[in-house]
């Protein structure tokens, strides 16, 4: 790491970025505010803070090379290990969501397809590879990684995807292999994961050029834990009627727990968000003005449709109050226990929804339907994501049957809207609305 | 021994069951077949059952590959009603979820067994973990089928060693141009290992290798065939018809799990773990692209292949992700390639044949 790069990064952190932010605020002040939609309650005040945090994260990332080791990380990887070495972490999936929300999905996917990547592959991967080949990104510029850190607890796809990056960049790929839990997690699986963590530490030491410090790791892991717990508490506020935020808000406010987990900034952010949500609960302020029906979402967001969907549902007095996706970064953190750091880290990351059998998912969803008083279920069959989507037809059937709630499947994709038929989705949703209103 | 003398899957299954034999249906791809043999169980592999898609459509989205679709179709059509267990090795996201879908939601006709294959780059802990998986499978098999008799495991390893030798011989003869048969015959014989018990299969394979001509078969350009499995069958016939010589393959169902050093003489579970770790590089195991490229280059060289045909099952993520870098690396090494996206059991069609023909001409 070079001293001048470190100094430059520090300068940008202390002066460069704050100056840029002030300038942006000054310009924004002159813009006309968007007209309020009567179907929604007042917007969350801390949305501005969120934007600031994420903009800062991406902005400063371009100054990281040379100043700090840079890692590209999958959303389900035990990032606490990297935090202990001070890696600057970039989450290509979060970047994919950003590109999706900015409707850049197809453009970047095409850039990957031109290099031979099939349109049938996960579009987070195609967006990332498209960015890699073309340099295009709404985030300005992403730093090249020194290391790739990947866990297959969300899918095998990330292994194939990161292998391509490792090959192209000729850099190390560290894999945390988390055996899929077909039933209960086994002692053999935990032992295997623990051994891998222990093996990984010298590799990370070499990549980061510094020794592992257990004390620092424990401190940062605790920080990560409290951040996830705060996120979980934010989600739990949606058990109230009316819910103080919608899942569409949560999709956006999820970014720090995914990308900045284990850093003080993420914990601070969720303290503010939780305070605001609690205040709204106390004052009976709902995310939508007329909450008549409460819904649950299954699978990743349809990023390019978040606003349209939120308006469509709000106009009918329907609010999404729960999602398996947003819940994933809160659900298993209870297992993290610093008296058994390695075993508990293994459990925390192995027990996430996508690394567990479908019976587990069904049970979890049933529980959520009850706790959040859900009236209906919307299942996003995401063409990109086989581990999330294969099994959903039966999941919908079983859940709907067991709990007597209407459910609908919409076929879409997370970022690549070339695979989304609005007409077909709306037809299905109209039938769902009718069933829900009649229920 | 001619391929025509091979018993069909259906006939063999009936005959085996008629004799009171135990059967386990096995989904793709890599699994310790020796453990099943040791328990007197016949593994019946389910790769591409020739059924019209009907029932599976209600359970699977259209973007799921045809291997998963056809496997589920077989199960739903009653094709597994007489098996004692169904084994799902962990191969890819789609098979992982299929396993759970079947076991958790679909009330299968037999108990489901799972087997997690660790993923590369293999940690030092991978061997011990693999052994623990073998032990767990062994326990499950003992519960369902009863314990393995004394000496059965040693016998199973012996069969495995013999088969390894025969596979290696078949591939080496073909690569050296000393096996005068086309791709259709070669793969018909080798695919019989997906359903025949080694006691029956070993003599058939031996006889075939002894009797197969050294000369004959396609004489045109040499190609390396890569992908998941030698299916649809008419692809092999098309290659033969175009006089293209398949000199080697890198197929998941074939060389990637047939060509590895035979089990050693130590403890049986450790020996099987060593076999697994020594298997050729494979997309589904997470092997690095440089390893795969080096391996493909070696295969092409050993048989003098002039080009590579990738026959990729549509929607197969592990294969599709590796493809662009493999093609790029092969091209740099002077090996042009062609990609065909196929659905198992769906004819490759005239367009694919035309592309193959043009590819063959380009190689000459
Ligand atoms: S969308 Fe699904 S397949 Fe793609 S990276 Fe995420 S979990 Fe993996
Ligand atoms: S063809 Fe590919 S995606 Fe389908 S089951 Fe086989 S490895 Fe998995």
Mind explaining what this structure looks like?
The complex is a heterodimer of chains A (439) and B (364). Chain A is α/β, with parallel strands linked by helices. Chain A is built from 19 helices and 8 strands. Chain A has one domain (3-23, 44-438). Chain A has helices at residues 3-29, 47-61, 80-83, 92-101, 105-113, 123-134, 157-169, 187-208, 214-236, 247-253, 255-259, 264-283, 306-314, 324-327, 341-350, 358-371, 386-389, 392-403, 422-438, and strands at residues 70-73, 88-90, 147-151, 173-176, 293-298, 318-323, 376-382, 407-412. The mean pLDDT of chain A is 96. Chain B is of the alpha/beta class. Chain B has helices at 9-18, 33-38, 66-76, 93-105, 125-145, 152-175, 183-191, 198-211, 233-241, 255-258, 268-277, 289-303, 317-332, 349-363; strands spanning 22-26, 41-45, 85-89, 112-115, 222-227, 245-251, 307-313, 337-342. In chain B, strands 2-1-3-4 form a 4-stranded parallel beta sheet, sandwiched between helices. Chain B has a 4-stranded parallel beta sheet with strand order 6-5-7-8, with helices on both faces. The structure holds iron/sulfur cluster (2 copies).
List the helices and strands and how they pair.
The complex is a heterodimer of chains A (439) and B (364).
Chain A: H1 3-29, H2 47-61, E1 70-73, H3 80-83, E2 88-90, H4 92-101, H5 105-113, H6 123-134, E3 147-151, H7 157-169, E4 173-176, H8 187-208, H9 214-236, H10 247-253, H11 255-259, H12 264-283, E5 293-298, H13 306-314, E6 318-323, H14 324-327, H15 341-350, H16 358-371, E7 376-382, H17 386-389, H18 392-403, E8 407-412, H19 422-438
Parallel strand pairs in A: 1-2, 1-3, 3-4, 5-6, 5-7, 7-8
Helix pairs in contact in A: 1-2, 4-6, 5-6, 8-15, 9-12, 16-18
Chain B: H1 9-18, E1 22-26, H2 33-38, E2 41-45, H3 66-76, E3 85-89, H4 93-105, E4 112-115, H5 125-145, H6 152-175, H7 183-191, H8 198-211, E5 222-227, H9 233-241, E6 245-251, H10 255-258, H11 268-277, H12 289-303, E7 307-313, H13 317-332, E8 337-342, H14 349-363
Parallel strand pairs in B: 1-2, 1-3, 3-4, 5-6, 5-7, 7-8
Helix pairs in contact in B: 5-11, 6-8, 12-13
The structure holds iron/sulfur cluster (2 copies).
């Amino acid at each position: 790491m070079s001293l001048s790069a470190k100094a430059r990064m520090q300068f940008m952190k202390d002066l460069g970025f704050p100056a840029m932010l002030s300038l942006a605020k000054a310009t924004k002040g002159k813009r006309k505010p968007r007209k309020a939609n009567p179907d929604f309650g007042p917007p969350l005040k801390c949305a501005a803070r969120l934007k600031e945090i994420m903009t800062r994260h991406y902005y400063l990332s371009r100054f990281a090379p040379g100043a700090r080791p840079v890692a590209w990380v999958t959303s389900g990887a035990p990032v606490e290990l990297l935090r202990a070495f001070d890696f600057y972490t970039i989450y290509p999936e979060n970047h994919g969501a950003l590109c999706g929300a900015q409707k850049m999905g197809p453009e970047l996917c095409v850039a990957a397809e031109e290099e031979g990547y099939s349109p049938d592959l996960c579009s987070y991967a195609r967006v990332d590879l498209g960015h890699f080949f073309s340099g295009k990104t709404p985030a300005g510029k992403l730093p090249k990684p020194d290391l790739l850190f990947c866990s297959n607890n969300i899918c095998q796809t990330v292994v194939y995807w990161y292998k391509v990056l490792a090959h192209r960049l000729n850099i190390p790929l560290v894999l945390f292999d988390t055996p899929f839990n077909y039933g209960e997690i086994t002692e053999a699986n935990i032992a295997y994961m623990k051994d891998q963590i222990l093996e990984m530490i010298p590799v990370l030491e070499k990549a980061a050029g510094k020794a592992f410090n257990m004390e620092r790791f424990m401190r940062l892991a605790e920080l990560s834990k409290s951040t996830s717990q705060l996120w979980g508490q934010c989600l739990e506020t949606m058990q109230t009627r009316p819910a103080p935020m919608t899942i569409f808000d949560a999709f956006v406010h999820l970014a720090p727990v995914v990308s900045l987990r284990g850093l003080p900034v993420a914990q601070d952010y969720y303290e503010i968000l939780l305070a605001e949500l609690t205040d709204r609960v106390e004052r009976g302020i709902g995310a939508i003005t007329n909450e008549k029906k409460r819904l649950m979402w299954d699978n990743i967001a349809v990023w390019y449709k978040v606003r349209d969907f939120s308006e469509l549902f709000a106009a009918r007095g329907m609010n999404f109050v729960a999602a398996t996706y947003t819940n994933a970064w809160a659900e298993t953190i209870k297992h993290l226990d610093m008296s058994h750091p390695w075993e508990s880290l293994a459990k925390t990351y192995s027990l996430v929804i996508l690394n567990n059998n479908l019976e587990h998912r069904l049970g979890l969803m049933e529980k959520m339907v009850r706790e959040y008083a859900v009236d209906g279920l919307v299942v996003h069959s995401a063409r990109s994501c086989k581990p999330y989507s294969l099994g959903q037809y039966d999941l919908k059937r079983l859940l709907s049957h067991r709990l007597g709630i209407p459910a609908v499947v919409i076929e879409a994709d997370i970022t690549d809207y070339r695979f989304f038929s609005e007409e077909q989705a709306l037809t299905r949703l109209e039938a769902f609305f009718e069933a829900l209103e009649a229920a | 021994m001619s391929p025509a003398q091979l018993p069909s899957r259906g006939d063999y299954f009936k005959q085996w069951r008629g004799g009171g034999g135990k059967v386990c249906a096995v989904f793709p791809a890599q699994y310790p077949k020796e453990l099943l043999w040791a328990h007197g169980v016949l593994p019946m592999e389910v790769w591409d059952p020739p059924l019209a898609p009907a029932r599976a459509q209600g359970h699977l989205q259209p973007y799921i590959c045809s291997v998963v679709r056809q496997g589920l179709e077989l199960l739903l059509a009653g094709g597994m009603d007489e098996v004692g267990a169904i084994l799902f090795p962990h191969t890819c996201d789609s098979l992982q979820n299929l396993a759970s879908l079947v076991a958790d939601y679909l009330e299968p006709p037999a108990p489901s067994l799972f087997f997690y294959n660790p993923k590369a780059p293999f940690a030092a802990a991978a061997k011990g973990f693999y052994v623990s998986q073998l032990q767990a499978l062994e326990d499950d098999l003992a519960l369902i089928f009863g314990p393995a008799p004394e000496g059965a495991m040693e016998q199973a390893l012996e069969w495995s060693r013999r088969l390894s030798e025969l596979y290696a011989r078949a591939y080496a003869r073909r690569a050296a141009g000393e096996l005068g048969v086309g791709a259709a015959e070669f793969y018909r014989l080798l695919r019989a290992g997906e359903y025949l018990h080694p006691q029956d299969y070993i003599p058939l394979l031996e006889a075939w290798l002894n009797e197969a001509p050294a000369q004959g078969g396609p004489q045109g350009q040499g190609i390396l065939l890569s992908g998941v499995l030698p299916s649809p069958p008419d692809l092999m016939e098309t290659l033969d018809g175009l006089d293209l010589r398949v000199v080697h393959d890198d197929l998941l169902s074939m060389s990637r799990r047939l060509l590895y050093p035979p089990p050693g003489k130590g403890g049986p579970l450790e020996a099987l773990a060593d076999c697994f770790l020594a298997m050729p590089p494979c997309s589904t195991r997470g092997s690095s692209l440089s390893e795969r490229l080096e391996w493909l280059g070696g295969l092409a060289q050993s048989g003098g292949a002039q080009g590579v045909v990738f026959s990729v099952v549509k929607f197969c993520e592990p294969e599709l992700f590796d493809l662009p870098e493999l093609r790029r690396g092969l091209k740099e090494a002077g090996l042009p390639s062609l990609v065909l996206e196929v659905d198992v059991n769906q004819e490759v069609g005239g367009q694919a044949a035309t592309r193959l023909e043009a590819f063959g001409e380009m190689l000459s």
